[in-house]
Amino acid sequence: MERRTLLRTAVLGGSSAVFGGTLWRGAAYAAPAQPGTGPYGALGTADANGIRLPSGFTSRVIARSGQTVTGTSYRWHNAPDGGACYADDGGTSRSSEAESGGGWIYVSNSEINPSGGASAVKFSSTGAITGAYRILSGTRQNCAGGKTPWNTWLSCEEVDRGYVYETDPWGTNAAVQRAAMGRFKHEAAAADPVRQVVYMTEDVTDGCFYRFKPTTWGDLSSGTLEVLVAGTGTSGPVTWARVPDPTGATATRNQVSGAKRFNGGEGCYYADDTCWFTTKGDNRVWQYNAAAQTIELAYDDSLVTGGTAPLTGVDNVTGSASGDLFVAEDGGNMEICVITPDDVIAPFLRIDGQSASEITGPAFSPDGTRMYFSSQRGTSGSSSGGITYEVTGPFRA
Predict the structure, then answer these.
(1) CATH number of 14-392
(2) Where is the sequence biased in composition, kind Low complexity (predicted)?
């Protein structure tokens, strides 16, 4: 699973690109990641926040559900979930790169029903909190989502016939419902600027993997919803087919014959011609090679050899500039695990004393030195007990 060279041997083509059978599962694909020594070393003892981190890393609490965010009058939402970071110059700039001396914004969904929505915390260039506010209200069970290249946040409803809402991390523009992106039990989204599509996961046991092709890139008001079509194996070539009725009057996953099923789609992250996504029902991390139009397994806990699987309850996923993937656990032993470009998987952090919770919303600050995430139910095990954290340290560049 090389991050930038995904196939070890020649890409399947011609008559070999046939769905089904042994050939579709072909041996040209790398073996899923295996446990090993991670790039950051062993976890230390729990700090004052109950977080076990490698040497050189520290944590702080950013916000707690039901309490005002430090230095602001804004009360943080319940059940914090998916999130992302945005560069900010201290005003209302939507720059795609971190401004010199600029700050940033972290957005976070609220996975409660009703109400839901999303909030944001604004930081100065030194990391001080300078504001917090609501960016989406009146929606239902907003689970994960995705960042767009034009710096909006796609907040996804995890309910039957749920919607995607496009929101403004700066809180200036009103959120917009994007019905053309399909109505289903949404989980996460990831934008691919090369092919000008948005990939999306579906959180049901027989869900599908989708992509939305806007009529005009940068405008999600209209376009074509497609579903991935493939064989029954875990690696091989794939195609895409149009979903006839994105409104979901008939479930979108049941409209196209041959649509590939995934057991509980969760997190979704795109970089370098690849979209990684997770499925919680079988503890897998998948990778879709968009250039070659193939899929394969990046991780499968049932295929771990020589020890206990370090990652279970796979959920939200993000990546760093080094090509490392960071996968959060829903349950498991409350870890965020790292999968390196050379296919080694190891724990990066662990939260103690919160076994009734899940880790959500991992995202890096624009300069890559800070990671944000939440424990959705904290120490209480209730949606009103959510805690949002920041971890700072020597992340690989």
Answers:
(1) 2.120.10.30
(2) 374-386
